[in-house]
Amino acid sequence: MRTATYFFIFLNLSLALFEEPAVYPLPFLATSVLEVLCLLVFLGRLTHFAKVTLHNVFWKDTKNICIMMAILLSLTDLAVYGVLRLYDVRSIRWSRIVRPIFLINFAESRQIRRAFRSIRNTLPEITYVFLLFMFSLLMFSLMALKLFGERNLQTAEGLPYFRNYLEIVFDLYVLVTTANSPDVMMPAFDFSSWYALFFIAFVIINTYIFMSLFLAVVYNNYKKHLKVMPGGACD
């Protein structure tokens, strides 16, 4: 039963690769039949679980309610999407975002729920580090706007360089990952080599300090919640 449940969960999640928009699209009839089959299996598994569980216990379990709601939403979305296709109305399958609920909430997924709850409990504790990082990013973006915004610099493609605040925030955010290094700093460096100090300071503070601190906080808090959570608490 566990193997069959995981197989159909995997099949249900994999349908997103073949539904429009998709790289390997399949006919709507094929994907809809497979999805209905998966939902019927989930419903049958839930019905079987209800037969072997006390009535009050079954309806008080949030996992069962989540699964039933996900099945209902998926069927409703599938029916609405099918009707809209008949009238050539373009739409999108919004219910795909609820499919991971099946992976998390079935009784067999105890370890997945435990990891998920550890992540959920960790998020509030890393918020302060994330806010400090965002404050640093916004302040450096403001400094970049003041330093380069009035220099009439241009990128290699001939576009304005660091004149729009939101674009500066995005470019510096990408620089944290070093994905656009050193291209993002070359127009300023060509104007004056001293401007390299600005980018060096930004990379040291945000990439090497904040990212290391962020990773340490996430790891330590996740490990703490994973250790203190008893085995039965994830049911």
TrEMBL record:
Pfam families assigned: Ion_trans
Residues spanning the signal sequence: 1-16
Residues annotated as domain Ion transport: 6-224
InterPro entries: Ion_trans_dom
UniProt key word Phosphoprotein: no
Xref: SUPFAM superfamilies: Voltage-gated potassium channels
Cellular localisation: Membrane
GO molecular function: monoatomic ion channel activity
Bilayer topology term: Multi-pass membrane protein
Listed transmembrane segments: 26-44, 65-84, 126-145, 165-182, 194-219
Keyword Flavoprotein applies: no
Keywords, comma-separated and alphabetical: Membrane, Signal, Transmembrane, Transmembrane helix
Top-level taxonomic group: Eukaryota
Listed name of the protein: TPC2 protein
Organism of derivation: Erythrocercus mccallii
Gene: Tpcn2_1
